[in-house]
Amino acid sequence: MTTPFTPPSDVAFTPAVKAIQARKGSRGGYARMEASGGWDSDITPELKAEIESQVSVMLATASAEGQPYVQHRGGPPGFLRVLDEHTIAFADFAGNRQYITQGNLAENPRAFLFLIDYARRRRTKIWGRARVVEGDHALLARLMPTGYAARPEQVVLFEVQAWDRNCPQHIPQRFDAADVQAALQQRDERIAELERQLAARG
Questions:
Q1: What is the predicted pLDDT for the residue at 28?
Q2: Max mean pLDDT range (25-34, 113-122, 191-200)
Q3: Phi and psi, residue 144, nearest 5°
Q4: Do 167 and 121 have their domain in common?
Q5: 166 found inside a domain
Q6: 64 — phi, psi (to 5°)?
Q7: Which of 5, 85, 91, 153 is 20–30 Å from 25 (CA)?
Q8: Helices marked H in 58-122
Q9: pLDDT per residue over 142-189, tens digit each?
């Protein structure tokens, strides 16, 4: 007996969500999307590059009672690491020692990563399950960004179940300060070069 296909988007499109989609007229479009394969559940090379370029992400968890919590995670590019086509990992740096995320994951492994690229006006949503790994010093050393001034405490492993990208609507275009500084430096160097060329012709 074959198991019926469950689209990856079912991680978000619960029966209640589908009922609202049907009532508001969008269920047909999403049903066609599901029938054609729907959302991806594997980390593609393009998504891997996007994940590993992040310097700031949001990690959402919930307690066993369903109380949600969203926590910021940041670091240099590469602090988020793709280990294989289903696993994202990062060194969890010591912080304010509230341990809400870790407590939530201890009783409810469901988790969500939200990535937003303001420069390209793109947001990526990743659903999955996560767990905290303590005491694995080799893995922690492997994931710790070189030369980064933070104290790693443990590792978070995130198993991807589904991911999707949204349209750019309402995302303001913003640029990272380091990228702006680099662009200004290139501009200034180009201006200086042109001025030298003009002076040489003078």
A1: 95
A2: 25-34
A3: -70, 125
A4: yes
A5: yes
A6: -60, -30
A7: 5
A8: 100-107
A9: 999 999 999 999 999 999 999 998 777 777 777 777 777 888 888 988
Q: Which tokens go with 66?
A: 């369903």
Both 31 and 110 in one domain: the answer is no
Do the domain assignments include residue 7? yes
Residue 122 vs residue 47, higher pLDDT: 47
- Residue 198 located in a structural domain: no
Same domain, 64 and 142: yes
Distance CA 122, CA 169 (A): 9
Same domain? 102 vs 17: no
How many CA atoms, within 13 angstroms, populate the side-chain half-sphere of residue 178? 3
Q: Are the C-beta atoms of residues 73 and 81 closer than 8 Å to each other?
A: no
Domain that holds residue 16: 1-39
Most confident of 31-35, 44-48, 145-149: 44-48
- C-alpha distances (whole Å) from 154 to each of 53, 62, 146, 169, 197 are 21, 20, 16, 37, 55
Tokens standing for residue 133: 């790994």
Domains in the chain, number: 2
In a shared domain, residues 157 and 127: yes
